[in-house]
Amino acid sequence: MTEWERGIFSSALEVPIELLVPQDRGEIGRVLEDAEFAIVGLVKREHLERARRLRVVHFVGAGVDHLPLDLFRERGVILTTGKGTNARAVAELALGLILAHLRRIVEHDAILKGGGWVHFVEDSLEEELEGKTLGILGYGHIGRELARMAKCMGMRVLAMKRDPSRGPRGDADFVGGPESLDYILAQSDVLVLALPLTPETEGILGEREISMMKKGALLVNVGRGKLVDEAALKKA
């Protein structure tokens, strides 16, 4: 942790605190043993089991499927997250991946670096985003931010969320519930997964769902890997 980061924590709190910062991953368990409040990223259960004094844990990301929630419940530990704070960064990444694929940026960069610059690459025509349909599964902070960006690029946006009646509609042209999945799959030129990993969403994109997608459609997953049946994806 830098001095600037230490200053941010110290100035944000009205009471004096002692900051314990592990210098390497081997020190995480030892540091947590003495902590009452912890700010964590990727941390192992074995480390948290040693933290008998913990009262509050703040996870810097959004998805908590990797954290020992049962342990927190058992010990009465309060868990908070950074949900929404990284939405723009993740949405920009998703849009960047879409652009990189449709505009063949990586492919053409490799050709240029290899000394093979040409004005036309056969079977490698770039595509524009304008007029294409973007499907977003998971319309939370990330999904809404991506929809806003995509609309600026002239895309039609179809989104799916657990309960369409809750939360802002954002910039999507269509927001439906789980029953709209098949419709979105069949319509989308680009499909982005921005769902949390839950028992309901694990494997949501299986063989049947993949078969319903347009031929040549682009799939971008900025959620969890287990949202997709990888065996079915390879088969497709």
Helix and strand topology:
Elements: H1 3-12, H2 28-33, E1 37-40, H3 45-49, E2 56-59, H4 69-75, E3 78-81, H5 87-102, H6 105-113, E4 133-137, H7 141-152, E5 156-160, E6 174-176, H8 181-187, E7 190-193, H9 207-212, E8 218-221, H10 230-235
Parallel strand pairs: 1-2, 2-3, 4-5, 4-7, 5-6, 7-8
Helix pairs in contact: 5-7
Short description:
This protein has helices at 3-12, 28-33, 45-49, 69-75, 87-102, 105-113, 141-152, 181-187, 207-212, 230-235; strands spanning 37-40, 56-59, 78-81, 133-137, 156-160, 174-176, 190-193, 218-221.
Radius of gyration: 22 Å
Q: What is the percentage of strand-forming residues?
A: 5-15%
Query: Which shape, going by the Cα principal axes?
Result: globular
How many DSSP H or I helices? 10
The overall pLDDT, averaged over residues, is: 90
Q: Poorly predicted ranges (pLDDT <50, ≥5 residues)?
A: none
> In which range does the helix fraction lie?
25-40%
CATH superfamily of the largest domain: NAD(P)-binding Rossmann-like Domain
Q: Any idea how many domains? A: 2
